[in-house]
Amino acid sequence: MFKSGFISIIGNTNVGKSTLINALINQKISITSYKSQTTRDAIIGIDTSSCYQFIFIDTPGLHANNKYLLNKMMYQVTLKSLNEADVILLVVDREYQQTSREQKFLDLLRKYNKKIILVVNKMDLYKKIVIDKIILSYVKKFNFDAVVPISSINNNNNNINILKQHILEFLPEGENYYPSHIKTNINQNKFISELIREKILYYLHQEIPHASTVLIENISPINSSAVVNISALILIEKNNQKKILIGNQGNMLKKIGIEARKDIEQILNKKIYLDLWVKVEKKWRNNINSLRKIGISINFN
């Protein structure tokens, strides 16, 4: 009996959703950061075996700030993922807090007739008594179909396999949605742009990481050259942000480029020449054409 289906991964920002999807398919497809709003679009990771195909959907966290069209779009991405899912993973890393955001998650889940698994992440950081308190605080609020504590950064963590067993139990019978060798829906250019943005998130702070995005302008053929040339454009909203991003004598932009190049070389297994440019595009987060240009489609119907 072959099973297949969609598994939506939701939760607050910084609970480890992207790290979890990378662990579930044993490959990095989603960038990670301790900063909020790292994931902006639905990232699909696919795990296929002889008896199942799991299609995991990494979603943006829910944000209180909806003053930007980008944030509204991110919320719609999460709702769409929940609608399409056969199984929902609610990822948490602390006790339930009686806040509007926490309540919003549970209110959302109550609207869907889906199998819902509570995933308590970062178990490597807590004693068992703390994990039990986290679990109890949530199961008192919601009737979950299963509860699994995990550590998504620990590759030897058997609880990842336990989580997969629960997912397999809850999925319907079906056929492959994707060819068995496909691991993600993210194309090469998008993934490279995300690796560059990951370094911006790491090295810069406050509003700058959230006010920036990356476009791949040009990439030379990978298979036909020893060195792959990549030209990327970083969009930022204000001139003073551009100065900080570039840094004194270009040092910050150089640092971002060096670290991003290392990751891209490891992924592509090729020597890379990475050329980064910075351009001010005012209010791009509220511009539907700018959002479409970076591959984000908007539909509020």
What does this structure look like?
The protein has 301 residues and is an alpha/beta fold. It folds into 2 domains: 3-170, 3-Layer(aba) Sandwich (Rossmann fold), CATH 3.40.50; 188-293, K homology (KH) domain (GMP Synthetase, Chain A, domain 3, 2-Layer Sandwich). It has helices spanning 17-25, 69-84, 100-110, 128-139, 159-170, 188-203, 239-246, 251-268, 288-293; strands at 3-11, 43-48, 52-58, 87-92, 115-120, 146-149, 213-219, 227-236, 271-280. A hairpin with a 7-residue loop joins strand 7 (213-219) and strand 8. Helix 6 (188-203) packs across helix 8. The longest helix is centred in the last third of the chain and has 18 residues, at 251-268. It is globular. The mean pLDDT is 88. Residues 58-61 are annotated as: G3. Monomer. InterPro entries: G_ERA_dom, GTP-bd, GTPase_Era-like, KH_dom-like_a/b, KH_dom_type_2, KH_sf_prok-type, P-loop_NTPase, Small_GTP-bd. Residues 3-173 form the Era-type G domain.
Give me some keywords for this one.
301 residues; alpha/beta; GMP Synthetase, Chain A, domain 3; 2 domains; 9 strands; 22% strand; GTPase Era
Structural class: alpha/beta
What portion of residues belong to β-strands?
15-25%
**CATH topology value of the largest domain:** Rossmann fold
Return the string of H and E elements: EHEEHEHEHEHHEEHHEH
CATH architecture of the largest domain: 3-Layer(aba) Sandwich
Report the uncertain regions: none
State the oligomer: single chain
CATH class identity of the largest domain: Alpha Beta
Calculate Rg over CA atoms: 20 Å
The name of the CATH superfamily of the largest domain reads P-loop containing nucleotide triphosphate hydrolases
Q: How many strand elements? A: 9
Strand order of the largest sheet: 2-3-1-4-5-6
Organism: Candidatus Phytoplasma australasiaticum subsp. australasiaticum
InterPro entries: G_ERA_dom, GTP-bd, GTPase_Era-like, KH_dom-like_a/b, KH_dom_type_2, KH_sf_prok-type, P-loop_NTPase, Small_GTP-bd
Region (G1): 11-18
Protein name: GTPase Era
